Here is the input.
Amino acid sequence: MDWTRIIVNALEAAVGLQTVVFALAAIGLNVHFGYTGLLNFGQSAFMAVAAYGLAVIVQTYGWPLWVGVLTGLAGAVVLALLLGIPTLRLRADYLAIVTIAAAEIIRLTVRSVTFQNVFGGSDGRQSFSSDFYAHNPYPVRYYHIGSFGFHEREMWVLTVGWVLIAVSCLIVFLLMRSPWGRVLKAIREDEDAVRSLGKNVYAYKMQSLIIGGVLGCLGGFIYALGQNSIQPDIFGTDTTFFAYTILILGGAARVGAPVVGAMIFWVILSLTDNILNEAIDAGYISHSVITTTQTGQIRFMLVGLLLMLLMIFRPQGIFGDRREIALDAR
Amino acid sequence: MRTRVALFLATLLSALFVVLGVAAIPASAEGESIFGFLFQLDKHNQKVSYEGVSVTVKGPAGFSKTVTSDKDGRWTVPVPKPATYTVSIDVKTLPKGVNLTDEKKQSLKVPVLEGQDKPVLFPLGKSERKVQGDWSQAAQLAAEGLRFGLIIALAAVGLSLIFGTTGLTNFAHGELVTLGAIVTWWVSTGNLPFLPDFGGFQFFPAAIIALLVCAGFGWLNDAWLWRPLRRRGTGLIAAMIVSIGLSIFLRYFFLYLFTGNTRQFPDYQGQKGISLGPIDLAVRDYLSMAVAVVVLLATIVALLRTRIGKATRAVSDNPALASASGIDVDRVIRVVWVVGAMLAGLAGILLGLAQGITFQMGFQILLLIFAAVTLGGLGTAYGALVGSLVVGMFISVSTLWIPPELKNVGALGILIVILLVRPQGILGRAQRVG
Here is the structure.
């Protein structure tokens, strides 16, 4: 067992692309679920709209990157409006079902053969981020301390990603200490009380859905730029539930919690994956029990179990406050 | 579905012909060639070959050759050297009513390696975008939709009863569906995970064992997870998220045990179709529908007439009042879990018969089950039944106008539209739900 490699991989996972992507998605969910109590099960749809907006504009139509980014952002706003108008007046579980259905609608549509010319079917779109890397300020080399390190392309996308995380956290922090944020938290606690004070609950929920969706869609951009390739099945329901697990692990309704949650989450997954693989390769675990191709399945089982156990025994996560979490449908 | 099965068989068959065809070519045929067979399987799985269809092969250095297929539907073009060639079929020379299943694939680019006889397949059949107003086809699709709707209904009634009595939106319900199908497969093939092969049982005893396993699993679900959570006073949203975690865990546990392959039950495959007017289904399909109808009717009668059924409806209506009038609410919920899991397991077995078994078959129909339940009105068992039939029919019949790969998109789309105009569902009572 090569413990240095296992630990270096875990450290790289702590700041790596997946952590950045899911931290941004979870920051958006935090605005929805943590602060407003909205049960958005379609966060992957916001990420998909952003990633595909960017990729399709750049690759299919050959327009510049900034048009793609604007299209993705506009797409996220439109999606929030489309989801919110029919459901925000209804009970929480209706929003859950409609958002998860909308996410599947988007995934099935972009992977269909019918629209293959635009979205690229199940192969998705590739090679659209050359504009992004053309602005890379890092000279070409390997930046490392020992064997922990990143190439210049990773450095660039991670820098942009972490700056976006910092800005998003700042925005959430400022919003939530404003009077507007206090109304959101009041809606989470008791919608009727807020309504009786003359506030337009529907409008506040809609604003929350849009802001959280736009923050989450940044994760989609970073994923697309970092991988330079997107496939529709990345944006399945599991992605949304990973983001939920991260949010609940960190602690809902805390500004920095999604970031810490994402780091811990991906470190745990990296450690279990690598330790299992090494143990199988070294022969500590028999191939008849599990093979290296099956360790990915163990990862998902672990996430499922983690989500259940957190929700049962510690719904406030690491940093949260139990009284501040919307656990009951009203 | 039917065309896809035919296409799959056609692909398999053509692979076989390729093997035979290569063997039949005399040794003198050195060098490279491109060849193929133009045929289609009719509804009795008989091969129909098409003669006299033009195929053109174009290649580098102006190479171009057009040939026509012989009476076995075979065409062959010897090519001068290994390279990438463009093979196109002249669709105008196809007999009337025969089309490419994918109209965009009229010409294909094929790489030919050194010494290779490269097979090229043009899948023929009904075009996926079907002709509008074909009534016999509409009837066939409606029958298939009815079968699918009944399967969804079995799962949806259980989901709806659980929602009605406990308020839980159970995201792990799809895994109960999968459980029924894969346990039946394990028992009927004898391939239990980690256990020696015992040869397997016939389908019916295997299905009954699977239903008992599902009932046991439903009991465990309530006894070990949901009842303790209810006792702790876990909120409904927290419980919903717990069920999501359970769903992810179980789905990948099934993947681990069952692998990612699509499998078929060993019995009742390759049955001949029986035609009823324009409808042409296998015996097992008629039987599945009959079983589903009988079970659904029995469930409704039980809800209306038996003591436990009346108690269930009372608990759905108002648990506190039911409890005050002497109904053992926990016992009712336990029964609902056991029955709901069995119904879901039966849905899985029937779905497995219709389209094969995978580790995520239940999860794939979960959203359709939700759509059915919401469409009918959350928490009402009859609503779930009506909603399922509407969803099943809609999905199947809509393929007359929209590509089959997008049929679920349509069903999920109407879910959103229904919520816009009638949030309480078709049969739900008009009440404030927000």
